[in-house]
Amino acid sequence: MEKINVMPKWNELFLPIIKYYSDGKSHNNRRAKIDIADSLNLTEDLRQVVNSKYKDNKIENRVGWALSALKIAGLLEQYERGSFIITNSGKKLLKNLPAIFDEKFLIDNYPLYKQNKEKNILNYKNKKNSKNNTVTDSVMSDYTPVERIDSAINELEQELSVELMEKLHTVDPYRFEEIVAELLARMGYGELMVTKKSNDGGIDAVVNEDKLGLDKIFVQVKRYAENNKIPEKYVRDFLGALSTHKISKGIFVTTSTFDNKAIVAAKNSDKKIRLIDKDELTELMIKYEVGTTKIKSYDIKIIDTDYLEN
User: Fold this and answer.
1) Domain spanning 10-143, CATH architecture
2) Structural domain 173-287, CATH architecture
3) Are the C-beta atoms of 171 and 157 separated by less than 8 Å?
4) 173-287: same fold as 10-143?
5) In this predicted structure, what is the pLDDT of residue 199?
């Protein structure tokens, strides 16, 4: 059988789950999530995908949410601690499976699930919005609540990245050098000094990796327009400055990108040189809170099954 190479949506998992419980036996929830995920015939890479922020197995997480939905609808019920069993409603459903067994089917046919759904403000906060937003809500309902939070965070960070880059293009060039220096300091590099505005030989900052300054990293920053790529010449000039000072490591940071020849020049050099373009720069600034301020944080909690079962 050909392997599936598309991650199933959480509400596409109702059918394999209800069939798994069709034997009428109770199944441990943790074991069931693994067994059902294994039964989906996913490619190995897809089977091992983890959620970006919480590092749990993605398909097993989706199976877990689908299990919860079927329990809320009354198709499964708790048999003993940490295990579910199929209900009479579930057995009845198995005898006459719908053509489309998704969340809409649960909402339309199981009042308990509908009532629970209506209490979920997150799912229904845009219910009265425009038609376009309704389409967006429909798409987002294919994801679990944690995945929707991830999506919202990613969207906010993308907007923040754009705003950061706009600001970086307006600050004084020397201030930009200081910002990059602050970022490197937040990232845990050693003692760092921004060079003087003149006679710096193309070097904008120097990092002392050890307290005696025996091992140094040279830093160069270029505030370029986003559509104006850093050419190979600038990278080679930077490499030349490293050689002149007998320095083996360098970091080149820009508000633009590097052209292909510049990337190849850095890669093929005998120096250890790291190129940081506009996308990675804003990503690092957000991660290390340079030029950004945290206004709110949320704690996402999950069931500790080991604690509850033991």
Assistant:
1) Orthogonal Bundle (1.10)
2) 3-Layer(aba) Sandwich (3.40)
3) no
4) no
5) 45
pLDDT > 70? residue 132 = no
The residues spanned by each domain of the chain are 10-143, 173-287
Cα Rg, the chain, nearest whole Å: 27
0.70 surpassed by pTM: no
Tokens 């199933």 sit on residue: 8
> For residue 74, what is the DSSP state?
T
Helix, strand, or coil here: 62? helix
Measure the CA–CA gap between 226 and 268, rounded to whole angstroms: 25
Percentage of residues in the chain with pLDDT exceeding 90?
35
Contact 28, 82 (CB under 8 A): yes
The pLDDT, as a whole number, for residue 16 is 94
Report the 3 state secondary structure along 160-221.
HHHHHHHHHCCCCHHHHHHHHHHHHHHCCCCEEEECCCCCCCCCCEEEECCCCCCCEEEEEE
Instruction: For residue 87, give the DSSP letter.
Output: -
